[in-house]
Here is the input.
Amino acid sequence: MKHITSTALAAGAQETCAKSAEQSLPGMGSITLQPAFRPISRRDIMAAVNTCGRDLGIRQGAVVVLDALLSCLPCQGADGRETLVSPATLLTIYASNETLCFRARGLTDRQLRRHIETLETAGLILRRDSANGKRFPVMRHGKPIGAFGLDLSPSSRNPTHCSRLPSGAAKKQMSCAGCGRRSSGSARPAPNCIWMRPSPSSSTGCATWCAAQRLPFVRRVQPSPG
Here is the structure.
């Protein structure tokens, strides 16, 4: 009973410390204030962004920066395996511009800032600026409970919001998914393969859809009648 009581008191004290830190440092990204969402892998987040990036006005450079930001998340278990991004993961990145430029394939500081602004405008990240504009973590008992920096909560809690866009990638996915049903011939397509006619536009669209769904893309051209 004594052990249970002391553990409960310690947990309560840690929560109190976290709340006091949030009150004394308003505006910081905090684990206790992060929205609830279903755990998701970093790979699935990038797949969703790659699918709808054009509709959101995101170019390849901004996608690379988002990938660099995701690489800074603490998503490695004790056994070295990749873990899912969850509400218990601190989603505010406090890495320096130098680190982000290195992870973003050697972008310049100016390019990095421009792409970060693009991601913010697209609603994929939030800025958590400190009073002096610096990024840094807020530690408790040797562990970060919050941070000032770039918050990835929007990307993590709703990575597939592009599927609700009225046009563009979402329609392309549905159109490409139906390529197999529109093709002729008695033979049935192999699982996870898309049959289609020789059209450059449909080829590109189907390949993109397959890549987003992590399915193998097989280009099989039906013979022309006669």
The first helix runs from residue 2 to 24. The radius of gyration is 22 Å. The first strand starts at residue 29 and ends at 30.
